[in-house]
Amino acid sequence: MVRSGPKPGLEGKMSVLNDTIFALASASGRAGVAVLRISGPKSESVIEQLSGSPVQPRQATLRLLRDPSSSDPIDRALLCWFPAPKSFTGEDIVEIHSHGSQAVVAKLLSVLASFDDFRLAEPGEFARRAFENGKMDLTSIEGLADLINAETQGQRRQALRQSEGALGKLYESWREHILTASALIEAMIDFSDEEDIIESVEVQVLEIVRELHGSITDHLESAGRRGEQMRDGFRMVIAGAPNVGKSSLLNVLAKREAAIVTSEPGTTRDIIEVHLIISGFPVLVMDTAGIRETTGAVEQEGIKRAFERLSDADLVLWLIDPQQSNEDTSILTSIGDALGPEQVWRILSKADLRENDPEDLPKEIDLAISSKTNEGISVLIEKIERLLGAQQGLQSSPLITRARHRIEVVAAQNALSTFMTGSFDEAELRAEDLRQAANALGRLTGRIDVEELLGKIFGEFCIGK
Q1: What is the pTM of this model?
Q2: CB-hemisphere CA count at 13 Å for 124?
């Protein structure tokens, strides 16, 4: 890891890496076991001060812990010592596995705080030290944060892969190719009077850059937003005219009365959101205000918010009442044009009120449902499950999981595009194009200075990680 040396911590509050830090690494509250983590140069001294004698590295050792100031027993606990550099943070680490009562934990934290040069860790400080000591890159750190917060099996699998370095290794391999091309460009500048060398270098560099540009483009296009959808949730918006059954469908999907249902049009004024897990995929289902011409200020604001959600949706369930013959298709068409027709499903609601054969659907309708009788609901859910299954299908390469990643990858792609369209007669400018591409990828992994990002990234962690 290329760094400029230890940095001050989150928002200037962390001390330098010479401090020894400690924190409760397990959840607070009464539990069978609590884990306290200690990291820093004086970690090993904790063992003798609490138990009276050293322990073997990487072996769990049962000891009676005592308060050094009074020799009063605290608890019988397991001690684990991980000497540097083979530890999570790259520093000496000690873990204390004690009983999980609040009294035991409070006493241990109080004793640790009494030691010289010991202090309570800030949120994410253990992970930050791992980053500062070259144990993990920024994408791995972000994957670790996602793993801790994972709620579904799909999120767990994606976050685990990223935390183990899959995404960082991909970006680093791209950066190495750019550095190779940069070295060739510098050689071309140095030997500008040798035509044979210049021609040979141009061919080599263009081959490297074109192949890399193609890989980056494939990464952006094939991944789509799948990684971000898995991390943040798949956004599914229920929309349509007033009183077409949007809130009823939301309640059926949520299996509870999440929205008020009445026969009065325009009941829903604000966005109602329900978080679901479908086939291991986090899904945010949103019920929106009925879209129509209205003079009411409150309803107009609700319709405005509905359009905002529609513009950012991954899937729109557009409900159509079979008894409303004046359906405004212009709005639906514009939504389909903006999102893509495959992201808008036209669903005939209130199928129990239809007089026609249930199988006789207009060609523009994807599905007929009834929230009252549950007709078509299982088919709708199966269709959503198939879509999500395709979204989270196994990929040969890791996925983009954050907007930060996408911004930097696009920046690298743009710099390479500029390189390919530029002239080799301006070799210094082409070298600058490659430098910008390399810097964008370096910011992803933390290879170049990204101090402004660190507070935000590590602030996502709980204390003790």
Answers
A1: 0.73
A2: 21
